[in-house]
Amino acid sequence: MPTRVSALKTSALNALAERLRTADFPLAADWETVNDWFGRWAALPELRAELKNHLHTLAPAEAAALIKASRETTTHFAWCLLDSPDDEFSFWLHEYKPQRDWRQGYADSVHNHRYHFCTTLLRGHYLHERYHAHLDPDTGLISSVRLRSQTQCATGSSGRLLADEFHRIPSAGTGTMTFLVKSRAVTESSVSFDPATGIGHRHVPVEVRLGELADRI
Questions:
Q1: Got the DSSP string for 67-98?
Q2: Greater confidence, 3 or 51?
Q3: Buried b / exposed e across 168-203, counting CB within 10 Å, b at 16+?
Q4: Model pTM?
Q5: Residues 20-55 pLDDT 10s
Q6: Displacement of CA 39 from its chain's centroid (Å)
Q7: Which site from 62, 108, 170, 203 is most exposed, i.e. has the minimal number of CB atoms within 10 Å?
Q8: CA-CA distances (angstroms) from residue 36 to 102, 118, 149, 182?
Q9: How far apart are the first and last CA of the chain?
Q10: Quick one: pLDDT band at residue 4, thresholds 50, 70, 90?
Q11: pLDDT digits over 150-198, tens only?
Q12: In order of start, what are the domains of the chain with their CATH numbers?
């Protein structure tokens, strides 16, 4: 269920939020336009300083809401800056762990997402790979992958990924942080594939499974 984390103080964050809220089209249906807006917004020279100020000036209740809506993954911490049920989008900071602390998991597997997103590197760098993925027609899981492109992304770079596209981040520099704007989910699940073992997985969020929970007891 969406979490209401909606306190924004910086002009940069507010400017992007207001542009997205006043769009005259469903955001998920035209994410290329969102990407055009985001690319120009992400190039603002004051962006990193304003995000830092935003975090430094959170009131205790605002900080508590942010922490409650955030989560740890196998490769990074996902900090939720804005997530209101009234919005078609949410804002996140991803703080990548030192490589030695990564556990085999999502970011370093070949995977897609349930949502579209745009991202910009606030600091650090990572290796970004895009893939063609073959889906088994019976299981819907990835059965094989083929590398499409490999890019070393540095501070200031930005881009977008749609829910039907597959990618992988096999490595990231220490201290790497990204800012993301995500659409609402456009699919109920996502899939991933471990190139080392050839094993595919499906990922279903808990909120989708709630309706089946009682029947499983």
A1: HHH-EE-SSEEEEEEEB-TTSSEEEEEEEEPP
A2: 51
A3: bbbbbbeebbbbbbbbbbeeeebbbbbbeeeebeee
A4: 0.91
A5: 999 999 999 999 999 999 999 999 999 999 999 999
A6: 16
A7: 203
A8: 32, 10, 21, 14
A9: 22
A10: low
A11: 999 999 999 999 999 999 999 999 999 999 999 999 999 999 999 888 9
A12: 11-216 (2.60.120.10)
Strands 117-123, 142-154: pairing is unpaired
What pLDDT is recorded for position 6? 60
- Report the alpha-carbon distance of residue 196 to residue 52 in Å, rounded: 38
Tokens of 48: 């990193």
CA 3 vs CA 68, 119, 139, 187, 213: distances in Å = 9, 21, 32, 19, 21
Residue 199 is encoded by which pair of tokens?
Answer: 């094993």
CB atoms inside a 10 Å sphere around CB 158: 18
Q: How far apart are CA 19 and CA 39, in angstroms?
A: 13
* Cα–Cα dist 143/132, whole Å: 11
Nearest 5°: CA angle at 146, between 145 and 152? 115
Give the torsion through C-alpha atoms of 56, 60, 62, 67, to 10 deg.
90
DSSP 136-178: PTTT-SEEEEEEEEEEEEETT-EEEE-TT-EEEEEEE-TT-EE
